[in-house]
TrEMBL record:
Gene3D superfamilies, A to Z: CRAL-TRIO lipid binding domain
Lineage: Eukaryota, Viridiplantae, Streptophyta, Embryophyta, Tracheophyta
Protein name: CRAL-TRIO domain-containing protein
Entry keyword Transport: yes
InterPro entries registered for this protein in UniProt: CRAL-TRIO_dom (IPR001251), CRAL-TRIO_dom_sf (IPR036865), CRAL/TRIO_N_dom (IPR011074), CRAL/TRIO_N_dom_sf (IPR036273), PATL (IPR044834), PATL1-6_C_GOLD (IPR056794)
Biased composition (Basic and acidic residues): 26-48
Disordered: region residues: 24-49
Predominant place of localization: membrane
Thylakoid is among the record's keywords: no
Species, as recorded: Citrullus colocynthis (colocynth)
Pfam families listed in its UniProt record: CRAL_TRIO, GOLD_PATL1_C
Length: 453
């Protein structure tokens, strides 16, 4: 099917035929799989052996399904019927031109013609197969419908459109990655509860459609960060914050949300790794149960819910503190001049009714120490001080002992060697507290020197 010439892959016209022959051979192998060892009956096989055999069979079925899907897509593109039957009234030259254009068709920037040999083609096709439980006919129809929808919706040019306006960075934004490298798409609906903003966003059918189109645009922005090649990150984590969100009585908001969910399910298969819903009110759970009747089991399985008291704890399971915005208990700040996501945080656990200390030693004077601290769940007693190395010098209290409930950042100019000491006391009896912290020393010229100059 693929020849190697001077280190390059060469595809010929027998690609589809070779795939079909391999497909036939795989079917024959499946029929004879259980006959390889006639002396060993199924009853004599151990549980682990059966599980291993089933695993191999599933793997072969998936491989066979991908081969069949590749063949169908190749035939549909070469035959010029991937987007529907060609117009019979079209001239020979026009038909040939349309066929050549179809050979260049792409989805999310990846060529769909298998014989082109692009590394991402199989990854894209796998998305549709997984969404349809490896039923090739259903996956093929889903692909066709998606391509037709993208053509009619003009989705390929949506990134060039100016959409969102005031909503950008207020309602939806792409920022950071989870622990496995999936891009994070945050969607906070609280600002939409304000009457003026709600009317501005959903005041007419045209505005509702624009909001939906803006959501699709955000999805397309996230996809630009994905890699469909083997081993690449090929899906997004969506985080929906429902704090102060418009209630179920807001029918326009409810309608657009439903449409957006169905669009993601129908035309962006397996592109959402997790859909984490935080600060969900009671009415949302009730609506989600009703909505479950119209969404697939695969879509439902991607949802993770977190009530207000467990937002940070839930998000930290998926997202490192350096990548999680401060508003959700992380360490990431907008336009941060002190730290970047590459500055990793250390972790400390404090048992109930215990205290722990964090120390940032400074061996040289003339620097400013900057540090970040966040506690999952907070509700702790917190104190900061500078302890000089010289026993004759005085300790300096930087922050009095008090209960805190948000991510902290502080800094202190070091005029003599010593250390910053942070003491955290966990007053709860049965709950362990997890602390994330980091620090950095920045060379600093004191202001009085600058003024003297």
């Amino acid at each position: 099917m693929v020849a190697e010439r001077n280190g390059k892959k060469v595809y010929d016209e027998t690609t589809v035929e070779a795939d079909m022959n391999l497909l036939s051979m795989n079917k024959d192998e499946d029929f004879h799989q259980l006959e390889d060892d006639p002396e060993k009956s199924e009853g004599e096989m151990g549980e682990k052996e059966l599980e291993e055999m089933e695993k191999k069979m599933r793997k072969k079925r998936k491989k066979r399904a991908l081969l069949e899907f590749r063949c169908r897509v190749e035939d549909a593109i070469i035959g010029n019927y991937l987007l529907g039957k060609p117009n019979r009234n079209t001239g020979i030259k026009e038909a040939a031109k349309a066929r050549e254009q179809l050979k260049e068709i792409t989805l999310w920037g990846v060529p769909l013609l298998p014989s082109k040999g692009h590394e991402g083609t199989d990854g894209v096709l796998q998305k549709f197969l997984k969404a349809k439980h490896y039923k090739v006919h259903e996956a093929f129809e889903m692909l066709r419908k998606t391509l037709k929808w993208r053509r009619d919706y003009k989705a390929d040019g949506i990134l060039e459109e100016k959409l969102g306006g005031d909503l950008q960075n207020l309602v939806g934004f792409l920022e950071g990655k989870d622990r496995e490298g999936h891009p994070l798409w945050f969607h906070a609906n609280g600002v939409l509860k304000e009457r003026e903003m709600y009317q501005k966003t959903f005041g007419s059918d045209e505005k509702c459609e624009e909001f939906l189109r803006w959501m699709v645009q955000n999805m397309e922005k996230g996809i630009k960060q994905l890699r469909f090649e083997k081993g690449g990150v090929d899906s997004i984590v969506q985080i929906t914050d429902l704090k102060n969100s418009p209630g179920p009585a807001m029918k326009e908001f409810r309608s657009v949300s439903k449409k957006a969910l169905l669009l993601l399910q129908d035309h962006y298969p397996e592109l959402v790794y997790k859909n984490i819903v935080i600060n969900a009110p009671f009415w949302y759970y009730a609506r989600h149960i009703l909505r479950s009747k119209i969404i697939s089991h695969k879509t439902k399985a991607k949802f993770v819910f977190a009530n207000p008291s467990k937002v940070t704890k839930t998000l930290m399971k998926f997202i490192a503190p350096e990548q999680l915005p401060v508003r959700y208990g992380g360490l990431k700040r907008d336009d941060d001049d002190d730290f970047s996501p590459a500055d990793k945080a250390s972790e400390l656990s404090i048992r109930g009714n215990f205290a722990a200390t964090i120390e940032f030693p400074v061996t040289e004077a003339g620097v400013t120490m900057v540090w970040d601290v966040t506690v999952v769940g907070w509700d702790v007693v917190y104190k900061e001080e500078f302890v000089p190395e010289d026993e004759g010098s005085y300790r300096i209290q930087l922050q009095n002992q008090k209960k805190v409930g948000e991510s902290l950042r502080n800094c202190f100019y070091i005029s003599e060697p010593g250390k910053i000491v942070i003491t955290i006391e966990n007053p709860t009896f049965n709950h362990k507290k997890t602390v994330y912290y980091r620090s950095k020393a920045k060379p600093t010229v004191p202001m009085y020197i600058l003024f003297n100059k």
